Amino acid sequence: MSIIMKSLLRQVQLHPTTPRGLAGTIATSLRFNSSKTAEKTSNISLTAQVFPLHKENITESDVDEWLNAVKQMRKNGTGGASNESEVFISQLAQPEPFLQEKFEPTAEQLAEVEAFANKKVPLPKDPMIENFTNLIMRHGKKSKAHKILSQALYIVYLKTRRDPMQVLAETLDKLGPLMSTKVEKTGAAKNRTVPYPLNQRQRNRYAITWILEGADKKKSSDYSVRLAEEILSAFEGKSSGYDRKAQMHKSSIAHRAYIRL
């Protein structure tokens, strides 16, 4: 208090004013000091607000009492959900009514199920096209290989006016060999050649490889045009791959004695 009075007297000596001015100076100083005390009181810690100030430390019983009070508040609640989110969460917390309900389809839903009963779910990608694209691809540029094949199939469509996918499937089925041979060691001086059948993927791989080799020999500067010309040649039975197919079959027939059934 003495410090406040000294500051007031110093202000009066430096700035001599009327009694009205002195009252204003005192009021200003009191407002200034009261704001400081308000700031000090507002900075009380949360622990001091919850627990009595005369306690120097917090005991286990105080913590248990606080937790029990919080649990009791949660248990009592506010008397029900107050917004849409709380209603939704409360319904999810009690799923028994939803589990007891039975789904009964309508007549339109049953008719739709019958309409699609015998239809297969299509694959996201055609395995034949993926295999062809991967064999065209160089240096990991799959998008470029896919673009080349798409342009080639479009040219095939312009030439034949048929579904290019069906044309390509028929071409691979006609060009793909049925048998191949492999050499086995017998432990003696002479090895033997054993014929074995090929699955559909192996047949397509041989056919695609021969088509790509034939396309490399064409004269056009655009690879998609060369590929389309070779696919059309194989579709018409004029590709050089048929000679290689006949040679593989001839070798398999010549060594049919070692075939395993």
Automatic annotation (TrEMBL):
Top-level taxon in the UniProt lineage: Eukaryota
Domain Small ribosomal subunit protein uS7: start-end pairs: 124-256
PROSITE patterns assigned: RIBOSOMAL_S7
Claim: Ribonucleoprotein is one of the keywords in the record: yes
Signal peptide annotation: none
Compartment(s) of residence: Mitochondrion
Keywords associated with the record: Mitochondrion, Ribonucleoprotein, Ribosomal protein
Pfam family of the protein (one): Ribosomal_S7
Listed GO MF terms: RNA binding; structural constituent of ribosome
One Gene Ontology term, aspect cellular component: mitochondrial small ribosomal subunit
Main location: mitochondrion
InterPro entries (UniProt xref): Ribosomal_uS7, Ribosomal_uS7_CS, Ribosomal_uS7_dom, Ribosomal_uS7_dom_sf, Ribosomal_uS7m_fungi
GO biological process: translation
Family: Belongs to the universal ribosomal protein uS7 family.
PANTHER family xrefs: RIBOSOMAL PROTEIN S7
The protein's role, per its UniProt record: Component of the mitochondrial ribosome (mitoribosome), a dedicated translation machinery responsible for the synthesis of mitochondrial genome-encoded proteins, including at least some of the essential transmembrane subunits of the mitochondrial respiratory chain. The mitoribosomes are attached to the mitochondrial inner membrane and translation products are cotranslationally integrated into the membrane.
Name under which the protein is recorded: Small ribosomal subunit protein uS7m
